[in-house]
Specification:
Blueprint (H helix, E strand, L loop, with lengths): L1 H15 L2 H15 L19 H7 L2 H7 L19 E5 L5 E4 L3 E2 L7 E2 L8 E6 L6 E6 L5 E6 L9 E4 L4 E5 L2
Antiparallel strand pairs: 1-2, 1-9, 3-4, 4-8, 5-6, 6-7, 7-8
The structure holds zinc ion.
């Protein structure tokens, strides 16, 4: 009976609160789900990983795999981080490599999370991408080679760069 009341109170609290916290809970749950049993995921190990897609397919969720290994671009304004303003660090969702600090994130109108600089030199690598009749710089994780997004030259100062990322391959850890 007591448990029933606790559940009722929790439910009532959830109902009373604005949609923002409920949304936050949903997002956090989504973030937890993002990591199935992945033995290659580490936020401290920076040793390069050179694994075939068949291995990644087993350890990544289908959503992360589709972007990280098959270069799928998520629809703009749909990812969980495009307008997220929490303070913390963004890591590669495939391997845990540190990529961006929230201080380098800026409000971009493109609908994807955008940053003007990486957390350290070598966090990412670049490849010319000539798909869709455009010449773009593809951005890959410097540790595992996951596709993260693209780099453009229309970002804000001080770098003028815009790292246009897919939320699904980012893993956010808030500052303590
Ligand atoms: Zn990675």
């Amino acid at each position: 009976m007591k448990q029933f009341f606790v559940t009722l109170v929790v439910f009532a609290l959830l109902l009373c609160s604005s949609t923002a916290p409920a949304e936050k809970i949903k997002n956090l749950k989504k973030m937890e789900k993002q990591q199935p049993s992945n033995p290659y995921y580490s936020r401290t190990d920076t040793a390069k990983l050179n694994l075939p897609d068949a291995v990644w397919k087993k350890v990544l969720s289908p959503e992360v795999y589709a972007t990280a290994r098959q270069k799928k671009t998520e629809l703009s304004f749909t990812g969980k981080f495009w307008d997220y303003t929490g303070k913390g660090t963004y890591y590669c969702a495939a391997c845990g490599n540190a990529l961006f600090r929230s201080d380098a994130k800026f409000a971009s109108t493109c609908g994807w999370p955008s940053f003007f600089e990486v957390v350290r030199k070598g966090s990412v690598t670049y490849l010319p991408d000539r798909s869709y009749g455009m010449v773009r710089n593809e951005v890959l994780c410097g540790r595992c080679g996951a596709h993260l997004g693209h780099l453009f030259d229309d970002g804000p100062p001080p770098t003028g760069k815009r790292f246009c990322m897919n939320s699904v391959v980012l893993d956010f850890v808030p500052d303590k």
